Sequence to fold (387 residues):
Amino acid sequence: MTDTRSYWVQTLDQIARPVFEAAASNQLPQVMKRYTDSLASPLEAFARSFAGIAPWLELEEVPAVEASLQAEYREMAQQALAYLSDPANDQRYFFTNEPGVSDQALVDAAFLAHGLLRAKTQITEKLPQIVKDQLIQALKSSRNIVHHNNNWILFSAMVEAGLDVLGSDFDLMRIDYGIQLINRWYKGDGIYGDGEEFANDYYNSFVIQPFLVDLIKRYPIIVTNAKIYDKELPDLVMKRATRFAQYQELLINCDGTYPVYGRSMCYRFGCFQHLAQACLEDFLPVDVTPAQVRSGLTAVIRKVMSAKSNFDDHGFLTVGVFGAQPDMGEPYINVGSCYLALQVMLPLGIPADRAFWQAPEEDWSAKKIWSGQLTHRDHAYHEFPGL
Fold:
């Protein structure tokens, strides 16, 4: 299925290139002034893009047709990270809640940290020590932002994981707190509350599940607060993650559309980050094949990309779900925010010779159901009492 992978790579390049080129040439803060007065937007645009394409940057062996493009993006990532972390840079990126920045800096410091984890070998470890030190100080400066009592607790946790992967001292208690509190907010059937209350939106995929999965894999036993149930928690988190991936696959309609509801839908196909991560990290349900997910996600990407006004005259994403629909955006949404869309590209970190890319096309669940094919019924996931 090399044509499908090539399409994904071309789409990645179309979306990410304006951001990466501007960031690598130290122009992104100036460019983003065209769109918003928010001083957080340059970090938003780059960090979200970086986190989405990081597994592809990390992949050691890509097809020959991708190699030069991947090398170019690796170089641009290195240059961008040097510029954005340099405290003497006159094109500043903001990691603290200074006037005009707001609390948003913590959010995108966390997405940047997630990218550093996802591209640990090919990007993070190859950074010059001076850039690592600058990034450490930048991430630490975000600690002065008090997180909200919802999914934001995982932003604080992920910042600490980013410090860890950079070789810095870090606060394991912040990671412990985030994991334990999210676990306390679990509602059942693979879904967490965004705080104490349940919100019917895509934030389990935008933030909660992807962050929690990668944190629990990196820190399976929280040594600062070890309890008996901590030993069970990693397994529970992954079972819930698998169930939620199954639910996400069911959301893909026959024509590649998907339900639009809840906050932040202008992140477009970034709402399938968790399903994409389940493919990358191999925790799909046993009755959902990589080929059907690839086919379904490709249909989603093609449908969204068929809109005529997804990009402005400069090649940057517009605010909207299907083309430019500015009224679909919340007050915190700007052009930089929309680059969370690139989280759907996580499977490009899967080697090209694996089943995800090589297995024949296969109908996803909605197409099987609505064409009358034999298929399995859905059922809820219930955990054993007492765990």
Q: What stands out?
A: The chain is about 50% helix and 0% strand.
